[in-house]
Design goal:
With about 280 residues, the chain is an alpha/beta fold. It is built from nine helices and ten strands.
Amino acid sequence: MKPLSDRQKNWAETHLVRGRLRTIARPAYRAVLGVQVAAASLLSRRPEAVDTSGITAVIKTFERPKACARLVRSVQRLYPAMPIVVVDDSLEPRPIPGTSLVSLPFDSGVGAGRQAGLDHVRTPFLLNLDDDFLLYRGTHLAAALDALSRHRQLDLIGGRVIDLPLFITHDFRRASLFATDATPKVAPGIRFGNVEVLDKVPNFFLARTDAVRAVGWNPRLKRLDHAEFFTRAKGRIVSGLLDEFRVLHLRDPFDLGYRAFRDDLAADVAYLRAAYPGR
């Protein structure tokens, strides 16, 4: 399904998320998500046949312990041998069995969190994950690993992020970066097998650890790290999108406590305007 229009988003925010229909919409929305998660988990009981000894999953989480635990369970179910690093800057970081916990000061932000997770990776590859993702039998991590192994020109492979409950996907061929004079090492649109080179891919990606370290994350950015990371990555690493590499995204617009932090963008916007005056 195509993304909602701005008009549809505004209507839903006004009437369903914050308006009179919230008391009906919130439990209905979460019930549908619950059914979808149960179905995905039931159908994803068998581990995928792939050697994950060289991959570390890195999860940045903040004030969503249930969502993070749900994601960890999905990783452990499909890839039981994969090391998992959880970076938590919640008020009370919670350890999850079978993972390595990196605790940061409260609300350190996503830039500092992702960098802290990267600093703890000791494997040649890392799997970058948001805490409201869910791995399932359509993830096909083996395909992404095979593509990186076959095509040394590629440093980072992003996958398709599917927003539940409406199965919305986004076209990253239209994704923009901040103003930069960098020239891409490989032109967008070039294909290596089934991987299409793009300047920017989703935050769900498998990458060579050394390549990501060459870019790193900006600790000044608490929320808006995505486009800035790939702006600095342009000309330094080669990113691509593999459509069969997928993850489910369980966004919860009704979690207003979390959103009070997530939607506080003023400091990031001010920083980015100063750093990239062209955009």
